[in-house]
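Readers of this paper often ask what the protein records in our data store actually look like. The remainder of this section carries one protein's record, kept here as part of the documentation.

:::
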Amino acid sequence: MKITSVKFYEESVRVLINNEQLILPVESRFISLKADCEIDEEFYAELKTESDNYSAYLVALRYLRNIHSAEEVRRNLIKKGFSKKTAQIVMKKLEERKYINDYDFAFRLAENLKKRSYGSVFAESKLRQRGVDSITVKNTVKEIFGTETCEEAMLNLLKKKYKSFDRAKCGRFLFSRGFQPDAVYRTLKQFENYLKEEYNESQRS
């Protein structure tokens, strides 16, 4: 095998070998490569491995332009055709450089869901879907939602959405937002009483 060309860029080195382009980081131990050098199969395999790892790392960085969990990053690398071993190496590098942090990801997602009037059950399900581990999910949901029932938020949602009381319909709506059953039942009773008071008030006017 023969190295056809070696081109240096600000953050990478492009090496052409038998019409195959490999991309290496500038800190690569192969930085002294030169064009027209002959290399054997073993040396090529080492170059190929480093090129695959670095290419996967670049793919992961592009994917992380939007916030993702570590598991989502790993799945994306596998989906892009990288080996599980390469994905594992890249994940370790991303963690060391603090590009991925599942607790931070979970906290931000759960906080956003709470602001949008979703409950703890919904948040927990969503975090699990996004690949966050059980312990992180449990701790995050507890921290964001605490022991509060979000009954005020639920009541406000019902006031905005419904002008009459239909227990089944209102209940399904609240459950779909991921609120705890006990809190839902209490809120339904509060909403029913609220509508009765509104009606009585209109009759007196």
